[in-house]
From TrEMBL:
Gene source species: Streptomyces abyssalis
Enzyme active site: K191 (proton acceptor)
Record-linked Pfam families: DegT_DnrJ_EryC1
Residues with N6-(pyridoxal phosphate)lysine modification: K191
CDD domains (UniProt xref): AHBA_syn (cd00616)
Protein name: Glutamine--scyllo-inositol aminotransferase
Record InterPro entries: DegT/StrS_aminotransferase, PyrdxlP-dep_Trfase, PyrdxlP-dep_Trfase_major, PyrdxlP-dep_Trfase_small
Keyword tags: Aminotransferase, Pyridoxal phosphate, Transferase
Lineage start: Bacteria, Bacillati, Actinomycetota, Actinomycetes, Kitasatosporales
Length: 394
């Protein structure tokens, strides 16, 4: 009998929910003696496509969200003369994909409360060399995605959605990830829906989706010799259509994904309840600013729950909580400040303030109400103590 227990006594900021059903699904794959890309991968692609309101041929199961971003850059054929606008508050994978192609990442500001860019933030960063815009839905909050999509269409610029955080997020009934031309989701071990490593890729244009399938498996027209044998009597000769990588998913991780997708509504409902509990317990906490409420018509995957503190005490509070067995973090440090992308003279005040003040509290569907109360109690005590010391010392 399989046993799934928490490995540490620390209250984790992220934690997956895996159990007997996922183990049974993997065992079924092992029983077929085929663990590569196959029928379970195809089934998961169709299931995820239905989840986001797309067609199966528009969706590809891949080995990571990062691979999806690099795949998007390959499809855009970016080069040294091209610029890509993206928020400075985002994961480094998007900027790395752009820079690796020889193109220039251009960072825009974000709203200090939502940590998402507005259409105005993006428009101010556009130039004649802008070939694409990449946006992240911070913590699962959709942000101004509809307005940003309209801006990109009006300007003839490709919109790429880094939907890593927003597997169940919607804006006015439309799934995040389907507003843009290309999108990619993350299913890594810290996300809401977990396959271990993995992700999904979406292209609005079926021709682009077909091209993505080729590039995700070395540029081959057919991903397997069995498929090639149906159309050629020399199936062992590769029909390479372009330069690609190996970014495909497999039946082991896809089988886990199918189970997780069935559980996803319950996962998100629990996360929503935890976020609401934090809101209620911290509503009157002095020195603690809560995330803004979702706009009407928006839903979130509730991947992050963040608070904002005085920048002078944020790090001390995080250390206090860690010493009390509560792990917190901040994602994502402003990219225009990290060594690889540091740009002297660039000022993005919203991103910089958010990066100095924001702290992510534990949020995952395995979190109990009593653990939430513990986090809140320890946070309140630490903020009060550190703020008082700052007043006395300052």
């Amino acid at each position: 009998m399989w046993s799934f227990t928490r490995r540490h006594s620390v209250i984790n900021v992220f934690q997956p929910s895996l159990g007997e059903e996922e183990a049974a699904a993997v065992a079924e794959v092992f029983a077929t003696n085929w663990t590569g890309r196959g029928p379970r991968t195809k089934a998961f692609e169709a299931e995820f496509a239905e989840h986001i309101g797309a067609r199966p041929e528009q969706v590809l199961f891949i080995n990571s969200c990062t691979s999806g971003l690099f795949l998007a850059v390959d499809l855009l054929e970016l080069g040294p003369d091209d610029e890509v606008v993206l928020p400075s508050v985002s994961f480094v994978a998007a900027a790395n994909a752009v820079a690796a192609a020889g193109a220039r990442p251009v960072f825009c500001d974000s709203d200090v409360r939502t940590l998402n860019p507005t259409a105005d933030h993006i428009e101010r960063a556009l130039t004649e060399r802008t070939k694409a815009v990449v946006v992240l839905h911070y913590g699962g909050y959709p942000g101004h995605i509809a307005e940003i999509a309209r801006l990109c269409r009006r300007r003839g610029i490709t919109l790429v959605e880094d939907a890593a955080c927003s597997v169940s997020s919607t804006a006015d009934g439309q799934a995040c990830g389907t507003f843009g031309d290309i999108s990619t989701w993350s299913f890594d071990s810290m996300k809401v829906l977990v396959t271990g490593d993995g992700g999904a890729f979406y292209a609005r244009d079926p021709e682009v989706a077909h091209r993505a399938r080729q590039l995700a498996y070395h540029g081959l027209e057919h991903a397997s010799a069995f498929d090639a044998a149906k159309v050629s009597d020399r199936w062992w000769e590769p029909n390479v259509q372009g330069f690609g990588r190996r970014s495909i998913g497999n039946d082991v991780t896809a089988a886990i994904g199918s189970v997780q997708l069935r559980k996803l509504p319950d996962f998100v409902a629990r996360r929503r309840a935890i976020a609401a509990l934090y809101d209620r317990l911290l509503a009157d906490a002095e020195g603690v600013r809560l995330p803004p409420p979702l706009p009407e018509g928006h839903t979130s995957s509730h991947y992050f729950y963040w608070v904002q503190l005085d920048a002078a005490v944020r790090g001390q509070v995080a250390r206090d909580l860690l010493e009390r067995g509560i792990f917190t973090t901040f994602r994502y440090p402003a990219l225009h400040k990290v060594p690889a992308y540091r740009s002297e003279g660039t000022s993005l005040p919203g991103a910089e303030e958010a990066a100095d003040r924001t702290l992510l509290l534990p949020l995952h569907q395995g979190l109990s109400d009593s653990e939430v109360h513990t986090v809140v109690d320890e946070l309140r005590k630490s903020v009060e103590r550190r703020s008082q010391a700052l007043r006395i010392g300052g």
